[in-house]
Amino acid sequence: MASPLTVVWVYRRTGKFAFHALGGALASDDRTRSVPQVYAMGVDAVVEAVDAARACGHVVVVGWSFYSPDAERMFADLRAVRARVDDGGVLHVAGGVHATAEPAATLGAGFDVVGLGEGEASVCALVAALQNGAAPHLAARAVDGFAWLEGGTVHQRRRAPRVALDDYPPFAPTYGRYGPIEITRGCVYACRFCQTPHFAGAAFRHRSVGNVRAWVRFLVGRGFRDFRFLTPTALSYGARGREPDLSAVEDLLAAVRAEIGARRLYFGTFPCEVRPEHVTPAALSLLRRYVDNDTLILGGQSGSDAVLARNRRGHDAAVVERAVALCRDAGFVPHVDYLFGLPGEDDEAAVATLRQMERLVAMGARVHGHTFMPLPGTPLRAAAPGVLAPSIARRMQTLSSRGQAYGQWQRQALVARRLARADGAEGAVTAGT
3-state DSSP: the chain helix, strand, coil percent, rounded to 5? Predict the structure, then answer.
């Protein structure tokens, strides 16, 4: 006989699409589709939802997912929730890139269980085990994809399996949670500063054209007029390696356009980007035929070839300027991402980046500024936090005042220092097997 159970998602705007994917997985699995889900934003809402479920005799799974820059705040929120509701019938589960990279520190912050890797399959298995009567604090021990703390030691099973995107919905329509359709997961480039390939794998997995088309048709039937997609690199759709497969990209865009008619299709802009070496006249001509966005987001990261090479970016600085020129000629406004303070950025490299930004702005581009953060789970976890060269900081302020630059590079510099101070937190708890 199934045990009564409620899942409460600690819902946040940052990273909300992870909750949509997990909620959609639970609602589409025959074992768990009947389990009620609550999307609760803020400590008060989480406590209210937990209290309501416990009053009905339900076991409650409280699901948390967050990025590394938000970890300290989420740890504080957990303490606040536990101070008001803390009993054996409530299981706090943390997942996502930060929890996967630093399970010991996450468990040490007070979470009962940590999810390791992608969560769709493992969350469904955990909830199914709880429904079948497993004790809340023991259930994860029989399910792949979880770690727990026992006697001061972290124990874990195998990491969660990497999923086929077609096997799961991209969002949770049962609960009115929609968003961009994830079309690719994982990334072959494995830039040293990025968590994506180290969390989701250094290989591409694509949602099939037929599956994307079906979900687009679903959204059209519900009145949606704007269509966007999640992918680490837009023009890599359908590719197996580094070389784009433009025929696969065209198959995708043509199928979407056939479904949406005159509705708006956005591709290569928020919330995804285009690698600069993928920008060619043929690629831009293809995009121009199908998309409605007049901007493209390009990952430039640095104007220094030495810095790009050291961080395994996979292209040089010249290709960024060539991509901007091609975008401009094709009628797109390029927004170029820069990551200030990357390892190896000395005064010479900072000057090269500054000069490149000025050239690109003169060509009609906008600059999107970020500060390097030593993110857990990446090869650069132990690197020094990014520091903006004074020349770049001053120039970014000027460009920002003119509307030619934007971003949160100043706040990220503070976060970078906090992350650097947190390095070594994994040693606070002994890791076991």
Answer: 45, 20, 40
